[in-house]
Amino acid sequence: MMIDLNSDLGEGSPADADILALVTSANIAAGLHAGTPIGIAQTVRVAIDRGIALGLHPGYADREHFGRVELARSPDELANELAYQFGALDALVRRLGGQLRYLKPHGALYHQASRDADFARPIIDLAEQHGLALLGLPNSQLAAGSQGRCPFIAEGFADRRYRPDGTLVPRSEPGAFVHDALEAVQQVEWLIREHAVRSICVHGDNPQALEFVRTLRQSLLAIGHEIRAFV
């Protein structure tokens, strides 16, 4: 089976270049929840040089909370914030000779769009408008709404724990994070087997991100998976 490894990058982590040596897709911050034009450009350059698929990773303009606090937005307000971030990152990526291939919302927006069709709809609209694939949780509003409109890729997380129903344990609750790389591998095998995920994420701001991605890549290759981008 083909499996993609992705990571949230361009957010200011010093490990971006090392992670890009191991992943196949890079979710690039668009400058609102994190990142600077210079830092984002540096990450994009390395990704392009390595042939990594580039994705738009838009979030809320809430740097204090890293875009991980849910905010109230009307569909029109959200559409404007998404268009703003797409325009900025698309221009930067094109200037450096690359192309955005997919979209994955960040943080709180990701979770709101997973469960609420009103948040999912502007994201799907943007992906369809610009011919982007959409990366998100299986059995979510993003998955349902994308049918017939844009390609949807089911994503799982290596460094976050799950509830029995397949939803993520909130970051505010005990036991929300996986800290052992071998446990992460076991969880990824479960996600592939039981939830048909095609892309696995390790958060770039995770202090163990590099160890996790390296171990995941080695383990997935060892059991016969092909590691490559989904777009």
Short description:
The chain has 231 residues and is of the alpha/beta class. Helix content is 41%, strand content 16%. It starts with a strand and ends with a strand.
What does this structure look like?
- The chain is of the alpha/beta class and 231 residues long.
- The chain is built from 8 helices and 8 strands, in the order βαβαβαβααβαβαβαβ.
- The protein has helices at 16-20, 37-49, 75-95, 107-115, 117-129, 141-145, 181-195, 209-222, and strands at residues 2-9, 25-29, 53-57, 100-103, 133-136, 152-157, 199-202, 226-227.
- The protein has a 7-stranded parallel β-barrel with strand order 1-2-3-4-5-6-7, surrounded by 5 helices.
- Strand 6, helix 7 (181-195) and strand 7 form a beta-alpha-beta unit.
- Helix 3 (75-95) runs parallel beside helix 5 (117-129), helix 4 crosses helix 5 (117-129) and helix 7 (181-195) packs across helix 8.
- It starts with a strand and ends with a strand.
